[in-house]
Known about the structure:
- The structure is a homodimer.
- In chain A, about 35% of the residues lie in helices and about 25% in strands.
- By secondary structure, chain A is α/β, with parallel strands linked by helices.
- In chain A, a hairpin with a 2-residue loop joins strand 19 and strand 20 (about 375-385).
- The mean pLDDT of chain A is about 90.
Amino acid sequence: MLIVKKFGGTSVGTPERIMNVARRCVEDYNKGNDIVVVLSAMGKTTDDLIKLAHEVNPKPPKRELDMLMTTGEQVSVAMMGMAMDALGVRAVSLNAYQIAMHTTSTYGNARLKRIDRERILHELEDRKIVIVTGFQGINKYDDYTTLGRGGSDTTAVALAAALHADACEIYTDVDGVYTADPRIVPTARKLKEITYDEMLDLATLGAGVLHNRSVEMAKKYGVKLVVRSSLNYSEGTMVKEEVTVERMLISGVAIDKNADRVSVMGLKDRPGVAFRLFDVLAKAKINVDVILQSIGREGTKDISFTCEDEYVDEAVAVIEANKARLNYESLSCDKNVAKVSIVGAGMMSNPGVAAKMFEALYNEDININMISTSEIRVTVLINEDDCERAANAIHEAFDLGRTHAM
Amino acid sequence: MLIVKKFGGTSVGTPERIMNVARRCVEDYNKGNDIVVVLSAMGKTTDDLIKLAHEVNPKPPKRELDMLMTTGEQVSVAMMGMAMDALGVRAVSLNAYQIAMHTTSTYGNARLKRIDRERILHELEDRKIVIVTGFQGINKYDDYTTLGRGGSDTTAVALAAALHADACEIYTDVDGVYTADPRIVPTARKLKEITYDEMLDLATLGAGVLHNRSVEMAKKYGVKLVVRSSLNYSEGTMVKEEVTVERMLISGVAIDKNADRVSVMGLKDRPGVAFRLFDVLAKAKINVDVILQSIGREGTKDISFTCEDEYVDEAVAVIEANKARLNYESLSCDKNVAKVSIVGAGMMSNPGVAAKMFEALYNEDININMISTSEIRVTVLINEDDCERAANAIHEAFDLGRTHAM
């Protein structure tokens, strides 16, 4: 088997942890598997480097920032190479230049384009463990780029796809994907399997241990993903096209307290109104999440949307600054809201799912602010103070804590 | 003018110092010059990285150690790029891959082979300051290598040669080459000019601010070297083929307290004796320095040599272990010795120079242990306790403190 294993910054945060990861990889190697290891920078290295950069330039040019940050993963892979050597195993560390990890040109947020497999295959044939820098690439100018948030996961999935690996294991500090955040819902249960689409929704909803881009890429190339803990040998959760066991209606409950609601009321009911509103927000680089449009009084409409905490003040300011152009009556903003979502491929063929969720909330006397649905997801916006109660009630209503169910 | 400027680890040890170096480079850039900057790793970074490596592997493989260490210079150049951007100047940092700095294969101590000038010339034409990682290269396996001691100086000289630069300025924490170590000889004077050969001898004798390899390369390609201080605007010392002003007999006095003497007495006077002795030492990787062979009693010969403090115990052990094969009568070792040398292109045509040095020592009642000479150098081995007095007496005898002399 060819296995790609990805370990994040926490897993390689100290020399001791690096040794632990090395041992774990060597175990699988000694079973006769070919091993490719993808690493992030050690611990808080990336943050430290950004801090260092700001000491000479409050707005460092992104090209130079990438040149700086890419040293972080190179330190990790070199250290891992030495650790494996100490265990008597032949290993070789490779950076973005050495595997020609081509990306788009955008510094700080590049997209992977293609990988030169030759060097890696050659080293694997030589029975070496291959250790690759995550998060980084090179662009057409022959400069370093970085892949943005979740970048190392994406590197791992891309390598697994390019090398036709049998599995891509993503090691984290949790041991899989749960039916809900165990800190909030004590009866939350680890899922054995989950579909790409469910994982994508969970990731978008902030409950994900995987970044969206890596899941999208895994789906596109059919890479079998496994989310596992680097701290224990528990089996983890497999992410794939279709789950093989009988399904529950839903896979999990996700909570996102990081959402605020903005409502623009009394917009003229005319074509282009929504376009103009979201155009000014897009130009201000504000990402909006759930959007809801409803009919207001007397030929007007109301548009509400959610966005992350950090953007909400700017969103309000931008809309106010464009009041004349947007032509609305009033603007309101509620920061004391949270998103609670249920996700599950099973709900597609089962129209009663949303109703069951609403019933659970009604039984708890929790008011619903906004509702948004997709084929495999129902999201409600509720008062932030209610969200723990809501999550537990929904988890209970769908019987997600029952281990025999899946 | 195209100027290559090299700054060592101390000069870029903190963000503040990086800003200072950036300002200094920008000054010359704003005069219309093309500037290429070569940097070492910040402060003690290289030592810290080696320490980190030893935490996972007491004998880290050299390939991985180079992979680790090369991150040090990359951090420096990226930081410098940001600092120059903060000063409103366009700059670009480049690593060994980006300038295709090809070296021999030996990790940890590679030799430069060739540089791809294209990228650098392109960036210079674009009126950018080009910032290059010193000390590192890539080998035929497409792996990182490092150049060993004085490596960044060598990078700077090689770039100056490849780009046909008008000057290669090496910035250090001293402001030039002195007639003697000013801490030992208070009347020591800074030299305005010195020849490559003199500089080479001074470097070998431990007094050098430049590493031998960089001076050798500068000599080979006729690169005009300037040794300057990064702390002030003093003119520094120019190293070139021939000095243009009238010469003193000698350029400087060098002291090396780091030398010990080993004497092997009563060796059979037969061909191959010296070969066998230095062969066992070479196989034990012990570098010997001054070698002296003299005729001993009754068909035997004595061989003495000096080597650095750190090797002397091993040298003695190795010789003793081979006593039967080497066939000598006795072995002695003296750690309380120092080398004092005078260096000067002027002495080639002046046979009285050595005598004048010996006279100065005689007047101070200092006993000479060993003597070794080259065309432009005389070295004596004396008691370590005498070496300050010796250096001052010689400096005085040759009138090196007189500023009008040169």
